[in-house]
Amino acid sequence: MSTDTPDAPVPGAPSSETPSYGEPTSPRSPLPPTPDQAAPAPVSATGASATAPDGVRAQQGEWLTTAGGTPLAQTDHSLRAGRRGPVLLQDHHLREKTMHFDHERIPERVVHARGAAAHGTFRSYGAADGLTSAAFLAEGVETPVFVRFSTVLGSRGSADTVRDTRGFATKFYTSEGVFDLVGNNIPVFFIQDAIKFADVIHAGKPHPDREIPQAQSAHDTFWDFVSLHTEAQHHAIWNMSDRGIPRSYRTMEGFGVHTFRLVADDGSTRLVKFHWKPRAGVHSLVWEEAQLLAGLDPDFHRRDLADAIESGAFPSWQLGVQVMPDTPDQTFEGIDLLDPTKLVPEELAPVHLLGEMTLERNPTNYFAETEQVAFHVGHLVRGIDVTDDPLMAGRMFSYLDTQLTRLGGPNFEQIPINRPRCPVNDLLRDGHHQDAVHTGVAPYHPNSLDGGNPFPTPAERAFVETPAPVAAGEKVRGPHTSVDDHFSQTRMFWLSLTPVERRHVVDAYAFELGKCYEQVVKERQLACLARVDEELCRAVAVRLGLGRPDGEVAADVAPSPSLSQLGLRWPVAGRVVGVVVDVTIPLAPVLALRAALQAQGVRTLVIGPRGGVLVGTDGTELMTQRSLDTTRSVELDAVVVGAAPPPRPDLVPVEGAGLDPRLDLLLEEAWRHGKAIVGWGAGAAVLEPYDAQPGVLVTDSASDVAGPLLERLEQHRVWERLHPTG
Ligand code: HDD
């Protein structure tokens, strides 16, 4: 692809006026640096930009230089003694280039290594008055944010769509310092005490001898641990549900998990649990789709997030809190608020909405931003404090500790993505990678030589730990929870699901336990399921070919309907629809269909029998984004068929016979995964075998497609097809 004439129009390619479809399908002009690409200036001790000249980072200027800024005329050949002679030791450029390359990798995160991130803005509704003094939650305040989503178990190069918990970590760059909300897409955790973190992670990570399986919980050590350490059962059933395989990072809820303490201006306190509610709804993949995607597009969630933002379908969430009184026993309706394996049903404490976050900008550089961002539960601001949840206490220690190894020293807060966007005036000095050029001579307190600066901030403007009473008594190593109950909320979750969601849970246990080798592990987990629900246990036991153990289920557990993902309609922005066309039909109606979908924020991928530009019977030119060689239905939310491309001869036994098997597979998988399928014209004939199936629609013309298609997309999937009885 030539870049000599970057502005030359490409037939059928979107013009600069047409919206981007999130895919670099046509040659682009070299982009000028955007303001966010400007070299970040070092921060002085006061937080003001210091003296470094612009352009200290590469690819900001025209001419190639060394890291020291010396202009270079050559970077393709080492310096040699004669054309075929030995390479000379004096070649500093060779040594510098190789040395730097050799050290490009840093240790990946020990958990949550695989992730994707985006920049955005949080806008406060001003609904936190009387709850917290945090400035960023005052009415109308806008705060820049950086959000990193992740899987937990896999390494940095693992697939996005594996069954796992997802991390949902948000950095708020507030005017009063950085606040990090380091949560997950599941509201409870495997363990009650941080001392068990290494155990649960060792159990979930690949087996130490062969280092398999990668990014999976479907193996003996994981189920060995959770069946022995039964407080993990609640989190485990969430992982086995559709929550473990989200459709997109954009369609996940987020939870702060722990109970936090909010402190108001008058000093009054409340206990709260943080929630992120996605505007696009909570949606998941089906398991086969997730498995196929792990091979066909291991970057599915990363791509989806970036494409949605690039196409203007900005993901957004509302932030809310469940508010509970700060009572001495720190329980609410019998639920121990210091036990992170328990949730508070929304039916008992509704979510009070505080503001809205929109992600509108992709990172410029993955390593500089997404990899080097360092979250920490101890990054708190005035008005938000921790509680005595021992899991949280362990996290307060762990996150600083891990950054030292991962980011190579104590100054990681100075990396541009981690820098506060407010004055920084600490007394921390020196260390590896010190970027700040500190002034002054007295980095200690109290001092007189720097005029006493910096002075302690007046209490009403400072972060002050809440004077909460602490439980007195003897030093003890033992459980901290008020009730030792691992099964009633596990059962509550199961009872709250619709039949199709329950079927998915059964499928997931059958798969995961079926992948275990040790009979004793399967039997022990079945014994746990017997304490969750008789029907669940029986269904899984049958699939494993084992008997159903006896077990007593918790009595009087009421479901919490808000835990189900189904039953509502949601905005469709960011959904992806594939439209199969070829050159035997007029293509102007396809352009109109694409515009109608685009108007709702839906991204359309034109799928041709081959790549490149198609010219329709009406002379309309259309650029394909996919061909039958490069797409499978798993990357789509719905399929539209407007043509029946003749089969590729080498793929069918008799030339011209039947449907192209790639199109056949596209339709068959879309059908099996519960996706809407719409056809018109020649495409309608292709859908005859699916005649009268729910969610398979045929229209007279392309102009009739958008209406019924969007209606189906609002419900995410054709549920009656995925589970005919309910
Ligand atoms: Fe953690 C990373 C979420 C318990 C120790 N954790 C990490 C990330 C998320 C969470 C989202 C990725 C942050 C990023 O994108 O950089 N972790 C949680 C939640 C927990 C939790 C919701 C329970 C409520 N974590 C937890 C415990 C410990 C850790 C109990 C250790 C005692 N977590 C870490 C860590 C990581 C981390 C090792 C790895 C990389 C990092 O911190 O920066 O320190």
TrEMBL record:
PROSITE patterns: CATALASE_1 (PS00437), CATALASE_2 (PS00438), CATALASE_3 (PS51402). GO terms for molecular function: catalase activity; heme binding; metal ion binding. It holds the Pfam family Catalase_C. It comes from the Bacteria. GO terms for biological process: hydrogen peroxide catabolic process; response to oxidative stress. It catalyses: 2 H2O2 = O2 + 2 H2O. InterPro entries: Catalase (IPR018028), Catalase_AS (IPR024708), Catalase_clade2 (IPR024712), Catalase_clade2_helical (IPR043156), Catalase_core (IPR011614), Catalase_haem_BS (IPR002226), Catalase_immune_responsive (IPR010582), Catalase_large_C (IPR041399). It is an enzyme of class 1 (oxidoreductase). Heme binds at R109, R148, F197, R395, Y399, R406. Residues 1-54 are annotated as: Disordered. Keywords: Heme, Hydrogen peroxide, Iron, Metal-binding, Oxidoreductase, Peroxidase. Residues 65-453 form the Catalase core domain. SMART domains: Catalase. Its EC number is 1.11.1.6. Signal peptide: none annotated. Its cofactor is heme. There is a cross-link at H376-Y399 (3'-histidyl-3-tyrosine (His-Tyr)). SUPFAM superfamilies: Class I glutamine amidotransferase-like, Heme-dependent catalase-like. One of its GO terms (cellular component) is cytosol. The active site is at H112, N184. Decomposes hydrogen peroxide into water and oxygen; serves to protect cells from the toxic effects of hydrogen peroxide. Belongs to the catalase family. HPII subfamily. This is Catalase. It comes from Lapillicoccus jejuensis. The lineage of its organism: Bacteria, Bacillati, Actinomycetota, Actinomycetes, Micrococcales.
